[in-house]
Write a structure and sequence with these properties.
By secondary structure, this protein is an alpha+beta fold. 35% of the residues lie in helices and 23% in strands. It has 3 domains: 3-40 and 147-221 and 325-366, FAD/NAD(P)-binding domain, CATH 3.50.50.60; 81-143 and 225-309, D-Amino Acid Oxidase, Chain A, domain 2 (2-Layer Sandwich), CATH 3.30.9; 385-529. The chain is globular, with a radius of gyration of 23 Å.
């Protein structure tokens, strides 16, 4: 039986942060994830690197954690962070007294804010609803790419000896007299169940932490809280724009790459697998959003999507927006199970801090003296400017910077070498996101790639303006050529599954230009290629 010191259950940002932290301290660690990495809340959110401004009135501890981690991530995760800055805007329908409390909270938690005039705000964000604006403050919010961050955390952890396995589901524990000996996992493709020995296991499954706890014989107070978001096909804003009022639905606009994300709602749900969205939810968010941007309906909507926040609700705690956004670490030795930990709650912005705190406790149990260094050491090395200049001979327009940020030094060098030797690999697979065939080939041949959706999370194919109209069949062709471990070798099956996933997010927004775009997709795939199918599973 294979043996690790620590096994981490859950491949979201927190689990990956734990893997990197432990690996850097010299602890032999393995992470297992039942699907691909960051398929839950760590990618299904608005992409905001919080300044803490949303929490200064109600939860100042969370606000302090956010501003500290915001500053750390800007240093160690430069290739994943867009330091676009943020605004808090009070409209005529918002409480003036709340503004006073908010300013006081920012000052007392160390969050730098700068009041600006309405004219200055309109100059920075011309689409703001001038008629309703009453107060505007600049604040150090930023945008962050959850997919990119996840895989770069993996690459960093691997350099220090950390290991991970995707499509490997936790199914139970091997324990004797209340002491952990290992975890039981299932290979999602073969169905094989096998044991991995370990001294400590960490439940970092986010919204699924309650289900993991049940399989370990424990009750854990996790309440999945669904948030629906809308992606528009252009950058409506250049800053993160927040409403200056008590946190509510539809009050954040985040620029994310070439698009803008509007979010979010808050609905308690029984199962974190519920990522459904509805036309009613979309309409509600738009109605709220157009109070800030009155011409919001003029912009084409790409899709709607949803994710489940893993709120920690201790017995008697409040649900929804009244629940704390802080995190909790549970050592289940107090429940009679030695060697099993759970970490739950928190935010994407604070994942590194969460990992540091639980790794401190784990290392104390293991008598490991190595301190945490994750706040100082960059996650990935930046691609040297000289190499990017040389690569411009092969990449389209601004594609060099995008590829360098996505790939990191080693993969970028391999992709450029392939483009040098094989001119055909320079062709674009995805025009929307400037993704070349060489980059898709590099990702497709990795052992963790099984589907076009796996390619999407690594490269962003299918996530741009056309939502997969042209890159679906191109990406599928590369996958079938390069990927030896793919479960489905049938080209139509690959395309069908990927397009059904795109369709799920498009269906609630089938109006206007989005509806016309969908008809083009139908003509290409359903009529020309006979790619049909129902709802995605």
């Amino acid at each position: 039986m294979e043996k690790y010191t620590v096994v981490i259950i859950g491949g979201g940002a927190t689990g990956l942060g734990i893997l990197r932290d432990l690996a850097m301290r010299g602890v032999k660690a393995l992470l297992v994830e039942k699907k691909d990495l960051v398929n839950g809340a760590s990618s299904r959110y608005h992409g905001l690197l919080h300044s803490g401004g949303r929490y200064v009135v109600k939860d100042r501890d969370a606000a302090k954690e956010c501003i500290t981690e915001n500053q750390i991530m800007r240093r160690i995760g430069k290739s994943c962070v867009e330091p676009c800055g943020g605004m808090f805007t009070r409209l005529d329908i918002d409480d003036e007294d709340y503004e006073e409390q908010w300013v006081k909270g920012c000052n007392e938690t160390g969050i730098d804010i700068t009041p600006i005039t309405i004219d200055e705000a309109i100059n920075l964000e011309p689409r703001l609803n001038r008629k309703r604006l009453r107060s505007v403050y600049l604040i150090p919010d930023a945008a962050i790419d959850g997919f990119r961050m996840a895989w770069q955390l993996v690459d960093s952890a691997k350099r220090y000896g950390g290991e991970f396995r995707t499509y490997t589901e936790f199914v139970g524990l091997d324990q004797v007299n209340g002491e952990l000996h290992g975890v039981m996992v299932r290979n999602q493709f073969t169905g094989e169940i096998y044991e991995i020995g370990c001294d400590i296991a960490v439940n970092a499954a986010g919204g699924w932490a309650g289900f993991v706890g049940e399989r370990a014989g424990l009750k854990i107070g996790v309440q999945p809280d669904k948030g629906t978001l809308i992606a528009f096909n252009q950058r409506i804003v250049s800053h993160v724009v927040n409403r200056l009022h008590k946190s509510s639905d539809g009050d954040i606009f985040v620029p994310h790459g070439s698009i803008t994300i509007l979010g979010t709602s808050s609905i308690s749900i029984p199962n974190p697998e519920d990522t459904s969205t509805s036309r009613e939810e979309v309409e509600s968010l738009i109605k709220i959003g157009e109070q800030t941007f009155e011409n919001l309906r003029d912009f084409r909507i790409l899709r709607a999507f949803a994710g489940a926040r893993p709120l920690y609700i201790p017995e008697g705690g409040e649900l929804g927006r009244n629940a704390s956004r802080g995190f909790a670490i549970l050592d289940h030795e107090t429940d009679g199970l030695k060697g099993f930990f759970t970490i739950v709650g928190g935010k994407f912005t604070t994942f590194r801090l969460m990992a540091e705190k639980i790794c401190d406790q784990i290392c104390a149990k293991l008598d490991v003296q190595e301190p945490c260094r994750t706040a100082e050491v960059p996650i990935v090395e930046e691609v040297p400017q000289a190499e990017k200049e040389r690569a411009k001979k092969f990449f389209p327009s601004y594609g060099v910077e995008l590829a360098a940020e996505r790939l990191g030094v080693e993969k970028f060098r391999r992709v450029v070498a392939r483009m040098e030797s094989d001119p055909e690999s320079r062709e674009l697979v995805c025009e929307c996101e400037n993704i070349t065939r060489a980059e898709v080939e590099e990702i497709a041949k990795e052992s963790t790639t099984y589907s076009v959706d796996d390619l999407r999370r690594r490269t962003r194919i299918g996530m741009g303006t056309c939502q997969g109209n042209f890159c679906t069949f191109r990406g599928t062709a590369v996958l079938n050529e390069m990927c030896e471990q793919s479960k489905d070798k049938d080209t139509l099956t690959h395309m069908r599954k990927f397009l059904q996933g795109r369709w799920k997010g498009i269906r609630p927004v089938l109006i206007g230009r989005t509806l016309r775009e969908m008809q083009i997709k139908r003509a290409i795939y359903e009529l020309s290629m006979n790619v049909t199918g129902g709802e995605p599973k």
